[in-house]
Design brief:
two-stranded antiparallel ribbon, mainly beta, four-stranded antiparallel sheet, single chain
Length: about 120
């Protein structure tokens, strides 16, 4: 299960506003590579929506089936807000249904993602 924990308003390249919901999975213990000590964390991911802001706010706290999984991605730079350190990452986190793995025919090709987002914004 994941829980909706916040919403985020963003602007597309063509100036349209859309809303994403941040979903967070359950608590997981992780061992630090530097100190060897355990700490608790939870994976999270943003999911695009067709909702208005009022609906998005009302959904905070809602639980959904599924999990947040780590997936490989093209390398990109990430700046740690607390330290200003720049890191190159090769993964991202995505929300995924546990009982219904994505079928190849359901996947959106990378070159069509912007078209998909534009369609969401026009709906």
């Amino acid at each position: 299960m994941v829980r909706i924990i916040k919403h985020k308003m963003s602007t597309s390249n063509d100036g349209k506003i859309f809303i994403s919901l941040k979903v967070q999975g359950g608590v997981e213990p992780v061992q630090s590579l530097q100190t060897g000590k355990l700490y608790l964390t939870a994976k999270s991911a943003y999911v695009a929506t067709t909702f208005d802001e009022q609906t998005a706010k009302a959904l905070i706290g809602t639980e959904l089936p599924g999990t947040v999984v780590k997936v490989a991605s093209e390398p990109y730079d990430y700046i740690v807000k607390e330290t200003g350190e720049t890191m190159t990452l090769t993964h991202r986190y995505e929300y995924q249904l546990e009982d219904k793995p994505m079928i190849e025919s359901q996947a959106i090709a990378p070159e069509n993602v912007q078209v998909f987002v534009n369609d969401l914004l026009e709906a």
